[in-house]
Amino acid sequence: MTTVSATELQNNFGKYLQYVQEGNDVIILRNGKEVARLISHNKSISFLTDSLLGVLKGDYNEESIKAERMKKYEGVD
User: Fold this and answer.
1) Helix, strand, or coil (residue 19)
2) Are 19 and 2 in contact (CB under 8 A)?
3) Low-confidence ranges of the chain (pLDDT < 50)
């Protein structure tokens, strides 16, 4: 993983794009603070994305999801 300033990334975008395509991550800093991470598309697949696929396809039941969420709050006054 490499850390670069936003200016450095802007000035050498092709270099860092190639670096990411090779499977590496780039942390982008602005004013010394981490503001973003550049990762390859293949690495971006995660549990969250997999979970969202069902929602995006409409393959979910809103009522059952709401009921499951509400179970956390049962018995809480």
Assistant:
1) helix
2) yes
3) 47, 77
